[in-house]
From TrEMBL:
Residues 16-110, 121-183 form the YhcG N-terminal domain. The lineage of its organism: Bacteria, Pseudomonadati, Bacteroidota, Chitinophagia, Chitinophagales. Keywords: Endonuclease, Hydrolase, Nuclease. This is Putative nuclease of restriction endonuclease-like (RecB) superfamily. Gene3D superfamilies: 3.40.1350.10. One of its GO terms (molecular function) is nucleic acid binding. Transmembrane segments: none annotated. It comes from Pseudobacter ginsenosidimutans. Pfam families: DUF1016_N, YhcG_C.
Amino acid sequence: MEEHAAPFEYRLMLNEIKARIKSSQSKAALAVNRSLILLYWNIGKVISEKQAEHSWGSRIIDQLSKDLKAEFPGISDFSSRNLWDTRRFYLFYCNEILRQAVAELDFPKNIADNVTHYVAEEFENQDFVIVRQLLAEIPWGHHLLILNKVSDPKAALFYICQIIENNWSRSVLSLHIEQKLFDSQGKALSNFKETLPAQQALLAQQILKDPYNFSFLALESHVQELDLEKQLTEQITRFLLELGKGFAFLGRQFPIKVGEKEYFLDLLFYHIRLRCFIVIELKVTEFEPEYAGKMNFYLSVIDDLLKDASDQPTIGILLCKNKTSLEVEYALRGINKPIGVSEFTLTEALPEELKSSIPTVEEFEEEINRISGHRSDDKNLA
């Protein structure tokens, strides 16, 4: 074939080859990381067991580091500090508490389905195959961050699953640990079990937190609802990160018309994983029972006007400054639409600026900017 005789076909071929190369590079990088993490596990295991067996003190680590550096001069992973970290890594994840943690954690299906045989071959104890698989899937730098900031093995495994599922950078991981995502996840009050199919109810409860932390906003405690809503949408990237993966922003003060009257939803989202619309109403006061009734009304309208046959029922989230659990339970009893109630905080210390963001933000950033630009004029709350 003559050169440049078929440029379109050539570009197709070039793109296919480039894609295969990139895929191969990615797989190679993952394989290298898995091998490295397994190596660190085994080094930590040997150090821990030999120290216990021979009653060796801390000087043995310094000597080991010196000898390994002499044998492998081109490798920088054998500093005394890193050897201590491998020992810490092994001891943290090899304890019996993990048996209960593994049984209680709802591992992502893609992780549980892909437990590879090489992990089983590396370890004698088959009970921890899934855990070892998880450990081998994330970089060493993420492991060190977890070891330094998380003391509960169950919480550590939760964060590891989130890293794998959401592709978190270290800065995003650090933020979620600081804001205690593990403690707040799935803790909000809701009627999801009574109003949604079992699997949908479980997923919906998992994405709902209590409390939500809006301390990245420069607001006083006595903030007006419109000011809170405006700043949340102005910092939509940070707000989406606090909400969690899967939220696509559709609009602020979203108009819905019922007969001759028009109502405005504080914030409207679509959740990719749940495949449903989500209405969020912001209240800067303590929860009042009538809030649930009004949310029930909004959800009925959205289900009628926007929900497609392939969509799941619309979910409502009420974010209030405070709430009383018993009052929320009574207010939600008898309501047939799925509603969750959470608190939010404004007064905690401002976290460090994020250097990267979760994939959901990147995917919807352009659409968010477009929608925000079209809705620059504030409307009064109904």
